[in-house]
Amino acid sequence: MADFSSLGLSDWLVKQCKQLGVNKPTPVQENCIPAILEGRDCMGCAKTGSGKTAAFVLPVVQKLSEDPYGIFCLVLTPTRELAYQIAEQFRVLGKPLGLRDCIVVGGMDMVSQAIELSNQPHVVVSTPGRLADHIRSSNTFSMRKIQFLILDEADRLLEQGCTDFTKDLETILGTLPAKRQTLLFSATLTDTLHELKNIAMNRPFFWESTSETRTVEELDQRYVLTPEKVKDAYLVHLIQKFTDEHDDWSIMIFTNTCKNCQILTMMLREFNFQTISLHSMMKQKQRFANLAKFKASVFKILIATDVAARGLDIPTVQVVINHNTPGLPKIYIHRVGRTARAGRHGVSITLVTQYDIHLVQSIEELIQTKLKEYPVVEKEVLKILTQVNVTRRQCEIKLESTDFDEKKEINKRKQLILEGKDPDLEAKRKAELEKIQSQKKKFKQRIQETIQQQQRVQLKKKLTKRKQMKNKKAAQKTA
Ligand code: AMP
Fold first, then answer.
1. Ligand 1 binding pocket, CB closer than 6 Å
2. What does each of the 479 residues of the chain score in pLDDT, given as a tens digit?
3. How far away, in angstroms, is 46 Cα from ligand 1 center?
4. Contact 122, 84 (CB under 8 A)
5. Atom nearest to 29 CA in ligand 1
6. Nearest in space to 258 (alpha carbons), one of 273, 245, 239, 277
7. What is the number of the ligand 1 atom nearest to the C-alpha of 46?
8. Rounded distance, CA 180 to CA 74, Å?
């Protein structure tokens, strides 16, 4: 295996890596760093936790040391927390250079960001929305001379998910020079490869880890089959088990909505688990503070929505619990990638209800791995079922008495107005869609019930026939 010097990095940078305990390059680093140093565009697709960030930070810092100026490099990433994490790696590895970075994300003071931008930092790390706002509202900084554009979690930036970055990206790309190096990284790049190729034009070097599986071997991937109504009791049981057995373990729990995240946090606190949450309905400062407390192990349990699914690197996380089975298999890959990072071991447990079986099948297809059942003593879960469900209901009532839903509604309306949409029209459309979905769900449920009933009737018939045969044989014997 190569070492960092043979990849073309200077001695001072190799020394800096060693000080961080980074001695040998990981495969994504070994393959991508030389191509980037050669001046090529690069697309790197490697499993979560395999050192993607350093694969682009190291060559950029190397090139910056040869010709330092600002603004030299722009990194775009989908979440605010990731922007801070990436900026930290630039700061640490570029320390001997006196590298200056600037973080431009939503939810933070725009004026101080504008001042920092006008001071020509070497590296800007940003979420697309806020940077596009700065570009639209001021001309005190220029990115006309940047040498590197990096899209981290590139597939998320380019897909049209719940947050659509397309317009903001267009605004940003319009201010960048055509002659630049573009680097694209993600654990799930291949799904959006065609769009990505349009952005990276300069003889792109494409590297993908050769392994057939999309998750790491060190990750023990499990599932627990549970009826919807018993799910929370399973969650409490699992947390109790892990905290009893390992007092130094941190647990990350993913759930589907901000409200659920809030309710589960309240509920677990009622059971005396030190729990903290992270979701997009929280103030940004609170989000950073909670993440910092979790990273420092002040709180051992973090409940989050998918805003924390990608990229976050927290070495103490030993367990990831999916409170809901992710609807998209690639979200599963990112969520479980919060543990078993950088060669460490970890466990993921997905709570699967009767309605999620097909989701598990598509996850298994994508990751090319079968999830194994996690053994749980059902009797133990049933013992706490009533207490858990009552506590949850109490927490729901408590939350309803706050203005949580109202705040959510206001935030949504603001977002729609910013996107140039009519909130009332959108609400009408959403209501219609929900009606159709609920009808579909009921229809599916009815079909399932009919199938189960038919199976029961057939089984009953079989048993009666068997009994009759037995009786007949016995009668024949006695005759
Ligand atoms: P990333 O995939 O960039 O989030 O990195 C995951 C973790 O691996 C981080 O904690 C890095 O500090 C660590 N890391 C990155 N490169 C290496 C390396 N070559 N050897 C050991 N650890 C590394």
1. 22, 24-26, 29, 49-54, 313, 341-342
2. 679 999 999 999 999 999 988 999 999 999 999 999 999 999 999 888 899 999 999 999 999 999 999 899 999 999 999 999 999 999 999 999 999 999 999 999 999 999 999 999 999 999 999 999 999 998 899 999 999 999 999 989 988 766 789 899 999 999 999 999 999 999 887 666 666 666 666 678 888 887 777 889 999 999 999 999 999 999 999 999 999 999 889 999 999 999 999 999 999 999 999 999 999 999 999 999 999 999 999 999 999 999 999 999 999 999 999 999 999 999 999 999 999 999 999 999 999 999 999 999 999 999 999 999 999 999 999 999 999 999 999 999 999 888 777 777 777 777 777 667 777 788 888 888 888 888 988 898 899 889 989 989 999 999 999 999 999 998 888 87
3. 12
4. no
5. 19
6. 277
7. 2
8. 11
Q: How far is the CA of 147 from the centre of ligand 1 (A)?
A: 24
**The CATH number of 4-208 is which of 3.40.50.300, 3.40.50.150, 3.40.50.620, 2.60.40.3500?**
3.40.50.300
Domain spanning 219-413, CATH architecture: 3-Layer(aba) Sandwich (3.40)
Type of residue numbered 190 = T
Residues 302 and 267: beta-carbon distance below 8 Å: no
β-strand partners of 182:
149
| C-alpha of residue 47 to centroid of ligand 1, in Å | 11
Q: Could you give the CA distance from residue 127 to residue 82 in angstroms, rounded to a whole number?
A: 9
Residue 100 has which token pair? 């200056």
